[in-house]
Design goal:
The chain has about 425 residues and is α+β, with helices and mostly antiparallel strands. The chain is about 45% helix and about 10% strand.
Length: about 425
């Protein structure tokens, strides 16, 4: 009898153990964009091969996501096991000890296959604190058919003076075609993320080596005057409200002769379900003014695990799957090669299938590989980041700057007034934070 009772007890303990593991839940906080929606749909394959892991998805708009994740990780509340973060957050949070490092990737993951500029941007002191799902830089999209009809030739590396000349000749509002589309919507991840690299390309910088703000420099004035002037003269109506998604829709509908924005847009413009300009799009580098340092940004949406997670091993197991070469092949087989997450792996850009399906691939790779987050400006600076400044205060600084820059577009303020206001706010913020006296 005792033997039977022992067997029953042992069996019950085993079942309890298996049941507990079977109920391991990984909560994923991610952004509501096309690539992440695909990841969520395809994650059923992961659950099929990992029956002991259940995925719980929280999909949010970008600004809401950032707020939720920042609050969660700073308070160590542990609501999320996988966080969708970027090159801005990963190094800061890793340095603070808020993220669990990826120390033993499986051999099949092929960590050396991940593009070095992207991999290094998500690491601190040799430790990898996030793995990239996709990466992007900036490029110039232009209508080849309109250029050919006007007898124009886009250089592979245009200057802003070239862009202005082309915009003037191609601007035709009566036919619903505008010379240039650029982000005007305020936000540190919207217009500021685009204007800052443009400013770098004129030799500007946010701070000198002593953290003194430099927003009233002639270089910043030249950049903001050029950017806002183009939109005022040759941009679509309501440009001050247009962010990435709005401009993507405009270009895909045939309303923009040129658009300078994220390289990731190329795959959407090649999608027959979203684009009316398939086969008509050309690709060039992002324009520069007087300097070729930091004139196009690098960004990656990456996946990391907070130290507050109670399911770290399972969370990292999912991340290895979602950012692996096998996942890229899965997307290719189900959605087509042009739809695979771009900008992360050398092997993707060595694939003939991808190169044949994605005419934008080589320009995307060139743009990504020619960035250096640690040396973002012509003159030395104490920060990392090209489209952003890698300090916690930048979210506030960038938000204020974005509002001021948009006010220039709407005619509420001059370039000098806007830059003066941003300079004052930045000086005050940096003094309060202890960077300067």
């Amino acid at each position: 009898m005792r033997h039977i009772r022992t067997l029953v007890t042992a069996s019950a303990m085993l079942l309890a153990s298996v049941s507990a593991y079977a109920q391991t839940t990984v909560t994923i906080g991610t952004v509501n964009n096309s690539d992440m929606v695909v990841m969520k749909e395809l994650s059923k394959k992961f659950e099929e091969s990992h029956p002991n892991i259940k995925l719980n998805w929280v999909v949010l708009e970008e600004n809401v996501l950032r707020q939720r994740l920042t609050t969660d990780i700073a308070t160590k509340s542990g609501q999320f096991d996988v966080m969708t973060i970027g090159l801005y957050e990963a190094p800061m949070w890793g340095k603070l000890g808020w993220l669990a490092p990826f120390e033993n990737p499986p051999d099949s993951y092929r960590i050396d296959d991940v593009l070095k500029s992207v991999r290094d941007g998500l690491a601190v002191d040799g430790k990898q604190y996030a793995l990239p799902f996709y990466a992007e830089s900036q490029m110039t999209f232009y209508r080849k058919d309109l250029f050919d009809a006007a007898g124009l030739t886009m250089p592979e590396e245009p200057k802003w003076t070239d862009i202005e000349r082309f915009a003037e000749k191609l601007n035709n509002p009566n036919k619903g075609i505008y010379g240039i589309c650029l982000r005007g919507k305020p936000g540190w991840g919207e217009n500021v993320g685009q204007i800052t690299p443009a400013a770098n390309g004129f030799g500007a910088r946010w701070f000198d080596m002593d953290w003194k703000p430099q927003l009233t420099s002639p270089e910043w004035k030249a950049a903001l005057t050029t950017y806002t002037g183009l939109l005022k003269k040759y941009g679509p109506p309501g440009a001050a409200s247009n962010g990435f998604n709005e401009n993507l829709a405009l270009f895909a509908s045939g309303n923009c002769a040129m658009w300078i924005d994220a390289t990731v847009a190329a795959s959407f413009l090649a999608d027959q379900n979203q684009s009316t300009v398939i086969g008509k799009v050309g690709y060039a580098m992002s324009p520069y003014g007087t300097s070729k340092t930091g004139y196009h940004y690098l960004w990656a949406w990456a996946l990391g695990v907070p130290v507050s997670s109670k399911s770290k091993a399972a969370a990292q197991e999912f991340i290895y799957w979602a950012t692996s070469p096998e996942y890229i092949k899965l997307v290719a087989s189900t959605r087509g090669w042009a739809a695979v997450p771009p900008g992360t792996r050398t092997s993707t850009y060595a694939s003939k299938e991808y190169l044949d399906a994605a005419p934008f691939a080589k320009m995307t790779l060139k743009s990504i590989e020619s960035t250096d987050l640690r040396n973002p400006t012509k003159d030395k600076v104490p920060y990392y980041g090209i489209g952003f400044v890698g300090i916690p205060e930048f979210q506030s600084l960038g938000t204020t700057a974005g509002q001021e820059f948009t006010a220039v577009l709407t005619g509420e303020k001059t370039v000098d007034q806007a830059l003066g206001n941003v300079q004052k706010f930045t000086e005050r913020t940096m003094k309060e934070a202890g960077y300067i006296k």
